[in-house]
Amino acid sequence: MSLIKSFKLVLAPPHRAATPFLGIGLLTGVFGRATPWRLTRALGTAGFAFTGFCLYFFRNPKRTSPQGDNLVLSSADGRVTGISMVPPPPALEMGNEPVWRVSTFLSVLDVHVNRMPVSGTITKIAYHAGKFLNASLDKASEHNERNELRVTLKDGRQVAVVQIAGLVARRILCDVQEGEHVQAGELFGLIRFGSRTDIYLPPGVTPDVLEGQTMIGGETVIAKL
């Protein structure tokens, strides 16, 4: 990545979900630093530091998605921590046949907005309350708080994308609804403060990525349909 691209990534405008956090941080910073007391001034400094962290964490850089109805894109920035053959989530009613699942772990330093892996129609959304285990663990797919989406392509095949909360993450945001048509690379949600996304490919489709590979949400091609 070039130096210019690195600066653009760091200075990208924040997602709207950052608004309340930025407000709290700025108010704490301004009022804290305006007082003569050492303790409250230190609190004000912490408020400004928190504001800076939120600007970084919630950044929402522009992405240029490759064109093609046969492409499955990464839903998030991060690192591939698992590629395995497993049945799709039962709640999404996609059958019991094992398919390839690609898991991408997001650290607190990664961009945390989530993007659609394919173009199609949201035909099922299933939310599950759960634990907050380390999202890099395989069992997080079954035990952690998560939000599952089934996307039906125009040819009838289905792709699932799952937002999984992590050890620090405590809130999953999803901005799409059942019946909504979506485009590959389109922003659809966010997970606060460390998380993971799983993508389940249709039967017969194999991933074109490797464990340990770095993903760029909305740009990296995971598989070809």
From TrEMBL:
Broad class of enzyme this protein falls into: lyase
Catalysed conversion reaction: a 1,2-diacyl-sn-glycero-3-phospho-L-serine + H(+) = a 1,2-diacyl-sn-glycero-3-phosphoethanolamine + CO2
Membrane topology of this protein: Peripheral membrane protein
Taxonomic source organism: Bombella favorum
Primary location class: membrane
EC number: 4.1.1.65
Segments passing through the bilayer: none
UniProt record similarity statement: Belongs to the phosphatidylserine decarboxylase family. PSD-A subfamily.
Protein name per Swiss-Prot or TrEMBL: Phosphatidylserine decarboxylase proenzyme
InterPro entries named in the record: PS_Dcarbxylase (IPR003817), PSD-A (IPR033175)
